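INFO batch 0412 | record 1 of 1 | parsing
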Amino acid sequence: MKKHNYSSYFPVSLLVLVLMATGCQLSAQNLRIAIMGDQTGTRNLDSAYVIMAAAAENMRTHSPDLVIHVGDLTESQVRDSSAYAEDFHTAADILTSVGVPWYPVAGDHDVNPPGFAPLSMDRSYEKRFRSLCRKVGLPIDQDLFYSVDVQDFHFIFLYSLENLHTDPRWGSIFLNGISDRQLEWLESDLNKHRDARGIIVVTHHPHWYSWSNWQRVHAVLRDHSVMAVIAGHFHYDQDDGSIDGIRYLVIGATGGSIKDADPESGGCHQYALMDISNRDILNIELHEAFSDTLLELTPRRSMDRVQALAVSLGNIYKDEKILLANRHLVKPDAHGEYSPLRTIGLESPANPIDLPIEMTISTIGEYLQPLGWVSGNGPGSGRRFNPGERIGWANYSSTGQWVTPPEIWQAKLIQDALPEDNAPLIGVRVKASFTDIRSRWVAATIMFPIEKIDTHSGQ
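INFO prediction complete | emitting tokens
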């Protein structure tokens, strides 16, 4: 991977050592925290780091006192050791460029080994991340959980991947949590800092999505007057509000993969600023990474709706499996014979949320001509779906139908000029819109899988 020379106009990673040793010119009363989100999921860290650098440059203009990174600086599973180290130092240089101390938590993309095996015993990627953190002067020892003091405020960085390849929402949720050992350390650390002017906790995974796992941690934080818990991982911002006086926040991606959605619903790169005083959060701002314009903090209820719709739209790819035989698109009949495929139909469009939605579908590629909604709405027009219409089950990580409903939208296939060597591109773009406290939309681009088969039947 080509290494961008951020150090040509930004200070290099070594600056963090100087800043930690000498301190910064901090406000005597208040503290401003800049918060950087995830860079991963794009499979193109070059572009992610360009966005990250733009956010860092904007952060610097707001004169923060420190930078927090919510994890996923690197892609552990797609880089060899030398490239991984190069990526880490690129991210470190960008964070150092803000000109103040910076502190990360480890994210799943930083430490998970290959294989997607929950409870993996391969700790080599953790060791690599820990070693690189120490090389740039971060106060990380044998564990990836640690704490620091900044002008009498206390910051705790929890490690949410003690059980590798687990997740509080999409993965093995019962295995995702804080260990007894880390919890004991947390309580001991909090007891030592009862006189802090304020305490902030940072973790990569929003563990509170599986509340039964998080409840005992929350109780410890509540009993020690923690001000806020800040997480990343979801790649969109989310404000869970205050629980027992603790503000729960998720910060969206800063260069990582984002939703195909409006900017206020997970569709833009961002960073955050938080101003704190004596045990008080004075202000929280969300900024677009490039333009630095202000964004709204999105309530959890709204983002749960957006996420459920995104999952539901993603299910549409299963509606058609197209076969290609001798430059013809075909389908099997009940006798195993193949006949030309004339149309495709979608069964999965549905409304998994509690508000009405408007859905539009457009075609992708020259081989598909929309016929429109079976209900009579013509090509290019939208269709209203009432709350829960055509849905069997729905939450923010899984939606579906118990029984496959009839087709609700159709398109005609044009087979006059299929390419000779490659499978044609056949797909749809589906967009769902709704209004809660504001107008929102989320979309999905679905390219149907095409399987080449060796048969002359049906010609």
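INFO post-check: Helices lie at 15-22, 45-61, 81-96, 108-111, 124-135, 180-192, 211-223, 300-314.
INFO record closed
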